[in-house]
Specification:
By secondary structure, this protein is mostly helical. The protein has 3 helices and no strands.
């Protein structure tokens, strides 16, 4: 009987389940990865190439200027998506061909996962 009364009180709004706590705003993160992009290929690094959108993002956001980069796309993507060194997966050199039978394990935790 007590259980029925408690459920009724909660469902009718007489007794709140928990105090509503404000949720902190989550940051907006834009991560840009470009292929064959040199350090000085954007305007905010002094290039003659006009890059107004990246320049505006760099001016109004946080620039991460110290990092390790991989020389090719396969190791770069493996490092970005897993947060680990690509040699852990055997992806440290060359480009993973479309007909390749190797790569990241399907049960690997990747960056977009919660």
């Amino acid at each position: 009987m007590v259980f029925v009364l408690a459920v009724s009180a909660v469902s009718l709004g007489w007794m709140p389940l928990a105090a509503a706590q404000p949720v902190a705003p989550r940051p907006h993160i834009v991560h840009i990865v470009s292929d064959d992009h040199g350090w000085k290929d954007v305007g905010f690094h002094g290039s003659d190439i006009k890059t107004p959108s990246p320049d505006q993002l760099a001016q109004s956001g946080t620039r991460l200027e110290q990092f390790y980069a991989q020389p090719m796309c396969t190791p770069s993507r493996a490092a970005l998506m897993t947060g680990r060194y690509p040699h852990r997966y055997g992806l440290q050199t060359l480009v993973n061909p479309s007909a390749g039978t190797y790569g990241l394990a399907t049960d690997e935790w990747l960056l977009p996962r919660p």
